[in-house]
């Protein structure tokens, strides 16, 4: 249960203010009547991307000495926390995939947007930490992605006008640094 909850919380926090939330807003603006397809596309893209990431994290955990993993995880959480403070830029890879509809566009764009993103890195880190519970990690990171993006798909415009993004980034940074420090104190 710890792997699932940690994964859900970590990705939900990391996703706040991320480029995929901007991508969700863009997709809803483009495919306003197909929010369900957008949400399903987010689910599919995240399952595939984070499944591969979790497998990679489990594989790396087998290569790295066990006493190093706690330090790597702790320092990585702190690094991701600091990374959250850096605003994302919108990528301009949308144009070609939009002609295939909301579901296909969302799957392709979300998968691409997640490559090398902080939530993908967090998934690799979590999988290395909980290598015996990869399914719980993938399920948790996917739920975290949905928790952060589904409200944006349905209420994004209103939410973005009311909550200051800088405050959200600083809070997310603080939570990641706290998770990193807690991991380091377990070492």
From TrEMBL:
The chain crosses the membrane at residues 38-61, 68-86, 98-113, 134-155, 167-185. Belongs to the GDT1 family. It is a multi-pass membrane protein. Pfam families: GDT1. The lineage of its organism: Bacteria, Pseudomonadati, Pseudomonadota, Gammaproteobacteria, Oceanospirillales. InterPro entries: GDT1-like (IPR001727). It is found in: Membrane. Keywords: Membrane, Transmembrane, Transmembrane helix. This is GDT1 family protein.
């Amino acid at each position: 249960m710890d792997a699932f909850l940690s994964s859900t919380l970590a990705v939900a926090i990391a996703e706040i203010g991320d480029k995929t939330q901007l991508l969700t807003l863009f997709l809803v603006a483009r495919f306003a009547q197909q929010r369900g397809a957008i949400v399903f596309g987010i689910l599919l893209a995240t399952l595939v991307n984070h499944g591969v990431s979790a497998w990679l994290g489990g594989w790396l955990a087998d290569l790295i000495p066990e006493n190093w993993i706690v330090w790597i995880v702790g320092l990585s959480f702190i690094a991701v926390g600091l990374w959250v403070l850096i605003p994302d830029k919108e990528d301009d890879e949308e144009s070609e995939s939009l002609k295939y509809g909301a579901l296909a566009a969302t799957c392709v764009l979300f998968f691409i947007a997640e490559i090398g993103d902080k939530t993908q890195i967090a998934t690799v880190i979590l999988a290395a930490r909980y290598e015996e519970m990869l399914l719980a990690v993938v399920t948790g990171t996917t739920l975290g992605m949905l928790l952060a993006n589904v409200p944006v798909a349905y209420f994004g415009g209103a939410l973005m006008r009311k909550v200051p993004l800088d405050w959200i980034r600083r809070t997310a940074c603080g939570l990641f640094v706290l998770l990193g420090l807690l991991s380091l104190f377990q070492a």
